[in-house]
Design brief:
- There is one protein chain.
- By secondary structure, the protein is of the alpha/beta class.
- The protein has 2 domains: 126 residues, Lyase, Ornithine Decarboxylase, Chain A, domain 1; 201 residues, TIM Barrel (Alpha-Beta Barrel).
- The protein has 12 helices and 16 strands.
- Strands 1, 10, 11, 12, 13, 14, 15 and 16 form an 8-stranded mixed β-sheet that branches.
- Helix 2 runs parallel beside helix 9.
- Strand 4, helix 5 and strand 5 form a beta-alpha-beta unit.
- The mean pLDDT is 96.
- 31% of the residues lie in helices and 22% in strands.
- The radius of gyration is 22 Å and the shape is elongated.
- The protein binds ligand LLP.
- The site of ligand LLP has 22 residues, from helix 10 and helix 11.
Length: 386
């Protein structure tokens, strides 16, 4: 929620900027960890969703580990207090330098996405006189019913190791001295709102882990990844993701064997709703067919609408005028720099504050300097309002 008091404070800040509601982040973490504690699940926050140091520190203090996809994310996680024993590292293209960084740090698990990667991790670990704990990221061929760019578990996707490779992978690992197989990892997509995907995933996990167990291979860890969606259409009504149904479905459908640990990698569901991109209206332009609200925030600050046709709720934080239909656009020289078409807003004027909601995940981290724009800074509710 953006309070009146916060809006008063916005006047002194250069727009556009990211505004984080720390109270909501903490509340979200409280709800999330109430379930992970109840079911004795391990959580690793997906740093890729938002890597601002303050956000990382709050999440680390709530007891989560970190899920990383680059050597720099591993370094950042450690710098912000995450214990290496709670860090997992996925990604189809880990470079030698990145693997060495993670080996040196002594992370919990490399989530391996191909046969050649496992060989390289083994060779680099041997060179450093160490052993790497690895998990196999499995591609279960599940359609997560989400945008095709953020679907990761279908057989045509580049992610994970396919079941037909299990035989050769296990034969390879048997002969490698510097890797130890500790588990299986799955992540089938992001912004998943069709809850039936999760029971299906649990059934696939069971079917696939049985292949290993039947051959006497112990699977100590099952990592089900992230992916739970948030309500972009009604962020104020549903500020906290549906963790209740998510964990109830998983708990009911996942077969966990004695001694096995279960892990998750939430990103968006933790940080999505606590972040807002705050901008000022530069101009209201009457076009040939449309009225345009031109913001000082653009696709360089928040690329999700341009990249995935994603919709972020748009709110004029100050006007109470007559409801009017607008196209809301940014200043960047691309027609895809558009946040919304036919958006109903109270009559809008130059200088009004406009918020793009649900921008906490994959917002600030994906910002860029296209058109040589400055990067938007982060402000936090607890600091701003004290
Ligand atoms: N684990 C792995 C291995 C992942 O690849 C991801 C996200 C996550 C966990 C966290 O997923 P989440 O809980 O956030 O859904 N930029 C896109 C999203 C890309 C997601 C990439 N992987 C967007 O703005 O929608």
């Amino acid at each position: 929620m953006i309070t009146k008091k916060a809006i008063e404070k916005f006047g002194a800040i250069r727009t556009p900027f990211y505004y984080y509601d720390v109270e909501l982040l903490k509340k979200t973490l409280d709800v999330y960890t109430s379930y992970t504690k109840k079911f004795k699940y391990n959580a690793h926050y997906a740093i890729k969703a938002n890597a601002e140091p303050r956000i990382l520190q709050i999440i680390q203090k709530a007891g989560l580990g970190a899920d990383c996809v680059s050597g720099n994310e591993v370094k950042l996680a450690i710098k912000n207090g995450f214990a290496p024993s709670k860090i997992v590292y996925a990604g189809v293209g880990k470079s030698d330098a990145e693997i060495k960084t993670a080996l040196k740090a002594g992370i919990y698990s490399f989530n391996c996405e191909s046969v050649p990667e496992i060989q390289i991790i083994n060779d680099l670990a041997a060179g450093m006189g160490t052993t790497a704990r690895i998990s196999l990221r499995v591609n279960p061929d599940i359609d997560a019913h989400t945008h095709k760019y953020i679907s990761t578990g279908r057989k045509e996707d580049k992610f994970g190791i396919s079941p037909w490779e299990f035989e050769s992978v296990t034969n390879l690992i048997k002969n490698l001295k510097n890797v130890k197989l500790i588990g299986l990892h799955f992540h089938v997509g992001s912004q998943i709102t069709d809850m039936s995907v999760f029971p299906l995933l649990c059934r696939m996990v069971e079917q696939l882990q049985k292949w290993f167990i039947d051959r006497g291979i112990k699977i100590e860890n099952l990592n089900l990844g992230g992916g739970l969606g948030i309500d972009y259409a009604n962020p104020n009504e549903n500020p906290i993701a549906n963790f209740k149904d998510y964990f109830t479905l998983i708990n009911r459908n996942l077969i966990v064997r004695p001694g096995q640990k279960v892990h998750f990698e939430p990103g968006r569901a933790i940080v999505g709703q606590c972040g807002h991109l705050i901008s000022r209206v530069l101009y209201v332009k009457i076009g040939q067919k449309m009225k345009f609200v031109i913001l000082d925030a653009g696709m360089n600050d928040l690329i999700r609408p341009a990249l995935y046709q994603a919709h972020h709720a748009i709110e004029n934080l100050v006007s109470t005028g007559k409801i009017t239909k607008y196209d809301v656009v940014g200043p960047v020289c691309e027609s895809s720099d558009k946040f919304g078409h036919n958006i109903l807003l109270p009559e809008t004027h130059r200088g009004d504050f406009v918020a793009l909601h649900s921008a906490g995940a994959y917002g600030q981290v994906m910002a860029m300097k296209y058109n040589q724009k400055d990067l938007a800074k982060a402000y936090y509710s607890d600091e701003l309002l004290k």
